[in-house]
Amino acid sequence: MSASIHINISMHIAREEWRHWLRSRLAVISFIVFCLLLLFTTVLTALNMQEASHQRLHQQEKAEETFLKQPDRHPHRMVHYGHYVFRAPPPLGMFDPGVDAVTGQSMFLEGHRQNSAMFADARAQARTGGFGALTPAKLYHLFLPLLIIALGHGLILREREARTLGPLLCQGVSGLSLYVGKFLAIGALVVLLSLPALFSSIGASLLGESWLASLTLYFANVLYLTIWAALTLFVSALTRSRSLALGVLSAIWVLSVLVIPRIGVTSASITLPTKGKILTDMRMNDDMRKLGDGHNAADPAFAKLRAELLAKYDVERIEDLPVNFRGVVAAKSETDLTNTLNAYAEKRMERERAQASHLSAYGWLSPYLAIAGASRNLAGTDLETHHRFLREAEALRYNFVQGLNQTHIEKLSYIDDINRNKGEEGWKRARVGAANWQVLGNFRFTPDSGSHRVVRAATELASLLIWFLTLVGLGLIASRRLTP
Amino acid sequence: MMRELKFMFRDKAVLVWISFALMFSVFAVILGLNEVNQQKAEIAELLQLDQSERETTLAKQSDWGSAAYYTFHTTYDPPSDFAYAALGQRDVIPWKHRIRMLALEGQIYETDTNNPDFALTGRFDFAFIASLIAPLLVLLLLFDLRSSEQTAGRLKLIEASVISTQKLWMLRAWLRISTLLIALCLPVLIAGMVLGVPATTLFLCVIAVYLYLILWMLLTLWLTRAEQTSAFNLTIMLGVWLLVCAIIPAVSTLVIERAVPLPNGGEIVLTQREAVNDAWDLPRETTYEPFLERHPDWIDYTAWDDDKGFEWKWYYAFQQVGDQIIEPLSQSYRDGQARRDELAKWVCVISPATLMQRIMERLANTDMRSALAYDQKIREFHADLRTWYYPKMFRSEDFNSQRALETIPIFDPLK
């Protein structure tokens, strides 16, 4: 038989399958319900994300404006006045908001401290159990496989139970063309179901997202759904009754979507336990005390610095230094302190990354984990991006604090500085001009480049591909051995 | 009945599902216990470090103002005995805070949570098994109770051989559900007894799970038809599960969020900062006026010693005034949280899965109510700190680190 006949037969089988689905009220209704759910969630999430994006950008601008508008004052007061940064969600957040809801998106930056992000949405969410808020990603990753199972488990079994499998195979339809035909049928279903995701991807790209990332995200989702289609077809070819097939497929779904990921989480937190930020901070305090208090220039920790400075400028008293010694101490202690803070922060992030990769290793057991990870990576709403947000915010903090300290050193005289608390007059003299507040940089958090994100998702994409190839391979083998 | 039991255990599918249930439950309990123990260990270490740090810090101070500035206090919400069964809000809402005498509103929104990937995936705890997995197991156990007999051609025969067919199916279903109940609850009960969880808590938990399973049993028996194929029945039931366990809760959350908007977090913290920072440049009387409304006792102690351009009592007064200014906004944030939680209760009427989850979190004290109660405790503790420090600052008492160490308020989670 020539290849074209094979294809014709397969096409015919696929069309028949669709006719069968369309005749079944259950199939049509569940398909329509899912489509409505997908559309509803896609549109709503997109609107929410747009709103959040505008709002946070607006707050960011406002925060910058108020900082720059501060009147003349002592530079160290600006260090404590501090600044706020907000993280706007990336365009693909409209498909997969990722960690956005649990990490919080605003952060207060001030001297001598690294604060954590505040106001995670999840904190104020109504507890209604279930799986939390619906997002397009969650629908695709958690629930669409159920629809594929429900519609597809009978693909081959139906022929077997209706006793049409024997005649089909006798009439020269090879198991292979049957398999291809059924695959085409369910593949068309997958493509149809994936359209809302394509909408999100295109929408995000029109908003400035990289096409590479958004299309990779789309195809990764198609691949994921196809894995479930291939699995369903494989089980359908292997089992002898529809209820058995459904039972097996539901069990696989429960395990790979609900059980394994959560066990992975707990396993990661047991094998690689993290201590909270507070505990880390407290452990760090021992290190910090050695550094001395930057508010107190008389702290013995700065004796050496003082001696060096006096020697450098060849003067006897710090009052005679051409620079403000209090500012020098503040800058020096900020540097030392930031090094310590960063070392601890990096250690903590390193640990969180290790946990994440421990968790994603379970992706070889559950395609759900693989797609969930890949999807966050590609959308730019993953842990890695959150860490980058923390780092960039820290860089901004350090820069403006040191900028202000520099002003303190150069533009405020030491005498005025130590006399700042001597009545109204002293208070007024210990000031620098508001023009110095320009040291604050703008903060606009943007996602990594598309190719960067694709590379980051590579392992997960590879594991999805292996899942796909394995299941198709097994399905082909099973279809060749198909007997009535 | 013994005969039916024998029948049941001869059914391989039943055995598989029941052993799954037992395995899941054992896993969930072990993992839950582990998490709770980690939290307890962390609290213990925090308290130990807290004590030693307070000693070193206080020893270095020379006045009450800097003592209050440099001394941090650890507050925490210890996990309840039953928390291993439902970790609940503790993954999202911080259960530990370190605070000091500065304006509380600038400190209380800090989060110290776990890896965000974890909160996103969710925990494998008993509450998850009971509210989401158990219904799936019920319908997997029951969906082909009648239709399989129909397919095997035995249905008419069996129905003819008993007096009441309905009773027979009920008995069969009930046997399966009860076995499932035992498999699910045994691990929780054993752990609970070892840990000394109050018997009423355990009893309520088992009753809740039992009623929940029976509800799903009745739902399955009602919706599945003998004349339909098993596959059709299972598909229908999976749809019902999806609706009750995922879609209704998610849509309700969304509706509640829209119905009860919260003040924007960014707004709260920005306003708070402005209030505190403006105070530096305001005339002292402007700060003292709202302060004295709350603390009239200090009206005679606000005189300013002009030689010192800076006074701690004034500094802490404006910190408190900062809190006072933001109070309405902050209160409405908390009211909103409580209101949302109140509305979520009503979702229980349409989604038993929500009810189950909330019952478990209630029993384990890991619900929103407990989180808000902890928030309130922090506020009260912070108020205690102020009550303790103010007399010392306003009366310009001499600093004594020994006295400070002995009488300084310590957070007590049980108060």
Q: What Rg of chain A, in angstroms, do the CA atoms define? A: 31 Å
Mean pLDDT of chain A: 85
Give the quaternary arrangement of the chains: heterodimer
What portion of residues of chain B is helical?
over 70%
Shape assignment of chain B: elongated
Count of separate DSSP helical elements of chain A: 20
- Helix/strand-derived class of chain B? mainly alpha
Total domains of chain B: 1
What strand line-up does the widest sheet of chain B have? Answer: 1-2
Distance between the termini of chain B: 53 Å
- Estimated helix fraction of chain A: over 70%
Overall average pLDDT of chain B: 85
Chain pair forming the biggest interface: A-B, 97 and 109 residues
- The largest sheet of chain A has its strands arranged as 1-2-3
The percent range for strand residues of chain A is: under 5%
Total E-strand runs of chain A: 3
Features:
heterodimer, A: 484 residues, mainly alpha, 3-stranded antiparallel β-sheet, 20 helices, B: 415 residues, two-stranded antiparallel sheet
Write structural notes for this entry.
The complex is a heterodimer of chains A (484) and B (415). Chain A has 484 residues and is mainly α. Chain A has one domain. Chain A has 20 helices and 3 strands. A 3-stranded antiparallel β-sheet of chain A has the order 1-2-3. In chain A, a hairpin with a 2-residue loop joins strand 2 and strand 3. By secondary structure, chain B is mainly alpha-helical. Chain B has one domain. In chain B, 72% of the residues lie in helices and 2% in strands. Chain B has 16 helices and 2 strands. In chain B, strands 1-2 form a two-stranded antiparallel sheet. In chain B, helix 5 runs parallel beside helix 9 and helix 8 packs antiparallel against helix 9. At the A-B interface, helix 2, helix 4, helix 5, helix 11 and helix 12 of A face helix 2, strand 2, helix 4, helix 5 and helix 6 of B.
